[in-house]
Structures are given as structure tokens and as C-alpha cells.
Amino acid sequence: MKTSEPFVFSSGVIGYPIVFVLLIWIVFWVEIRFGFDFNYLGVRPRTLEGLRGVILSPFIHSDIKHLFNNSIPLFVLSMALFYFYRGIAWQILLFGILLAGLFTWGIGRPSNHIGASGVIYLLASFLFFKGIISSYYRLIALSFIVVFLYGGMLWFVVPVDPGISWEGHLSGLLVGLAFAFIYKQRIVKPPKYEWEKPDYNQDDDPFMRHFDDNGNFVESLPETESLEDDTEEESPATGYRYFYKKSEEK
Predict the structure, then answer these.
(1) Sequence spans of domains, the chain
(2) CATH number of 11-182
(3) What percent of the chain has pLDDT over 90?
């Protein structure tokens, strides 16, 4: 059953992120268990075979540290996406992976770019910028939480470490920012109070009746109910009878 509530917790809020994270762990387990090396399936910039990495690279990681560092933020941010933006969550995730991968393919160094960090930057960027421009206090609070938890990631969108794909990070950041404006109208609207509605009438507001035109408080008298008849009907008199019975006990 569909609900009109903007934020509803469902099994998918946790279920989808768990499946996503579980898949990348399964891929890594297959590599370790059977001795495979899937690094060649990453994004190889400006090569035809490197295009397959646009889809496959988020599921491939170099070592357990790389995998662990990506798993927690990927789970937290994707869970926030499915809870606060459930109507567009799949579009953001799928199109974001595609566009961020293509952007990395276009600007990246000639190397194999692997890992889900580009997706993490995509989600963090979208959640932050969308919350800021939404003017909705819950989404703005989410933006501050994202900055508090993952604001330090901003340093890695520049080439500070040759072993890190800063191109993938930058690509995810820019795609998330673009989606924040592209999906500007596809978000929940801030609730309107009674006085913000177009049909609001101040004279019908019980609270505003306590103030005069100058803003002074006026104690209103309680309203009395009118009677249909000017005279009240007299209720019939009630009589009581007492009987005295002498006790036979002596």
C-alpha cells in the first residue's frame, strides 16, 4: 500500500545497501578463494576494453583494507539515499555509476581504476548538495551529518597520492553535484503551516483572535451556547417517602 509520508522506513532501506556491499565482498572472496585477479576489469581510460570497467569497477578492490574502507561509507550513504530519496534512489545509483565511470574513463590516467570509492563520492556529494538546496530542515541536517562524517574525503579529489584514483573521486563528486540540480523538483517539499497556505484566513484562526490589530493580547470571552427557549423548563419535583418500622427486638 502506498503512503503519502515522505520518509518511510522499509526493508529496502537496509536490504538494498546490504546486497550491494555483500556483492563486492563476494567478488573479493572469489578472487582470494580461487586465485583470480579482476583488476584488469577496471576502468582503463580511453580504451575500448576499458569501458567494461564503467559497470564492473565498483565491485573490484585491490586488498582487504581497500574493501573495508569502502564498505562502511557505502552502506551508510546508500542507506541514507534509499530512506530520504526513495523515489529517485535507483536512478541516482545506477545512472550515477554509469556517468561517474564514463567521466573517469575520459579524464583518468592510463591505469586500471577500481573500487567503489567513486560511488561513495557520488552519494556523499548528492546527499550534501541536495540537502542544502532543498530548504527542508531534515535534509539540511542530513547534509551536515554527511560533512561531519565524510568531509575529510574532499582532500582526495586532487592528486595527493599516486596510488589513489583521484579521477574517480572527482568524477563521483561532480556527478553527484549535477544530480542535485537535475533532480531539483523530484524531492519532498517542506511542510507548510496554516498561515503559509494560500487560503489562510486570519479571522478564522483561533490563536490570532487573541490579538487586536496592533498586536496587543486580548483575552476573549468564552462563547455561550444559545438556548432555543428563553425560559428553562422546570424539572418535575421529586418526592421521597419514608416508612418507619418498629423493630421487634428488645
Answers:
(1) 11-182
(2) 1.20.1540.10
(3) 60
